[in-house]
Amino acid sequence: MLEFVFEVVGELLIQLVLETLAELGLHSRRQRRKPVNPAVAAFGYAIFGASAGGLSLVLFPESLVPEGWRLANLIVSPVIAGAAMVGIGAWRAKLGQELVRMDRFLYGYLFALALAAVRYQFAG
Fold first, then answer.
1. Distance (Å, rounded) from C-alpha 114 to C-alpha 48?
2. What is the band of 32 on the pLDDT scale with cuts at 50, 70, 90?
3. Which residues contact 40 (CB under 8 A, 6 or more apart)?
4. 108 Cβ neighbours under 8 A, 6+ residues apart
5. How would DSSP label each residue in 58-88?
6. Cβ(23)–Cβ(85) under 8 Å?
7. I need a labelling partner for 100 at 20 to 30 A (CA). Which of 8, 16, 82, 106 fits?
8. How confident is the model at residue 78 (pLDDT cuts 50, 70, 90)?
9. Which residues are within 8 A (CB) of 4 and not within 5 positions of it... i.e. 6 or more apart?
């Protein structure tokens, strides 16, 4: 049972670490530009998440979640990751920092869902 918990938490940590690194990268590249259409931005975050999922397969080719729980992980982990991005966004707002779209639930969720979908489909 303890092994199962470590496997699920490990898969979630992969998503959270990659999403946090992406968020940090977006903050470091933040420039004042004309705002992008939200639908285009959502598509971009999904592509970015799928790319991170591909990168995660290079680093961790095997799924850490047992076969019977992989679908549940695909559903639950992106929700947790999106909520974590909201927390990071609230922390940044409290510090007076400008927020990027990934600091909001929907964009963080889309990134994590695309990442999890790639891992669900291709992790062994």
1. 8
2. low
3. none
4. 19, 23, 81, 82, 84, 85, 86, 102
5. HH--S-SS-GGGHHHHHHHHHHHHHHHHHHH
6. yes
7. 8
8. very high
9. 66, 69
What residue segments make up the domains of the chain, in order of their start?
Answer: 13-27+36-122
Q: Where is pLDDT greater, at 71 or 18?
A: 71
Question: Distance between CA 108 and CA 113 in Å, rounded?
Answer: 8
Contact 22, 111 (CB under 8 A): yes
Phi-psi region for residue 30, left (φ > 0), alpha (ψ -120 to 50) or beta? beta
Asked if pLDDT for residue 109 goes beyond 90, the answer is yes
Q: Which residues of 64-82 are buried (b: 16+ CB within 10 A; e: fewer)?
A: bbeeeebeebbeebbeebb
